[in-house]
Amino acid sequence: MKKNLQLLFNECLDNATDEELQAIKQLLDGVRRKQTKDNGSFIGGIYGMKREMRDGKLEVTMPITPVIYNSLGIVHGGVTATLIDSAMGTLANIVLPDEYGAVTTNLTIHYLAPGKGEQLTAKATIVHRGSKTLVIEGSVLNDDGKAIAHCTGSFFIFKRKNNSTNN
């Protein structure tokens, strides 16, 4: 496996443009962030997500890079959805006791503007907290604070089999 990966890596590196070299670096940096537990998932690591609680809301930021562009040169809508789902799901899991977890059961997203600029910020707030579900609202903002997406999500609460947390 390592030998095949090394061959593929060398081939990609030898033929890479500057943009492709930046993408390879971002992917490898993301794997390293996962290995060092700076991020809890490969998605968070590769996309360079950082989180912070502010005034009862969870904020997750992500730099805009060519890795997340669609063919039009703007942030891919699926990446925007991943960012807001990550913010809302992380908030759901932060507010629950350690022996419980939550997973997305429904996500409704409205795209309002294209993703452009240097960074996106997703903000998530709990709308309803029940014994079996959470409803969370979120928005994604660009550098100027302009909303590019609005989202609501439902999250199913379950009892974990063990007490490990993998947020």
Automatic annotation (TrEMBL):
It is an enzyme of class 3 (hydrolase). Its EC number is 3.1.2.-. Residues 73-147 form the Thioesterase domain. CDD domains: PaaI_thioesterase. Transmembrane segments: none annotated. It comes from the Bacteria. GO terms for molecular function: hydrolase activity. InterPro entries: ACOT13, HotDog_dom_sf, PAAI_dom, Thioestr_dom. This is PaaI family thioesterase. Belongs to the thioesterase PaaI family.
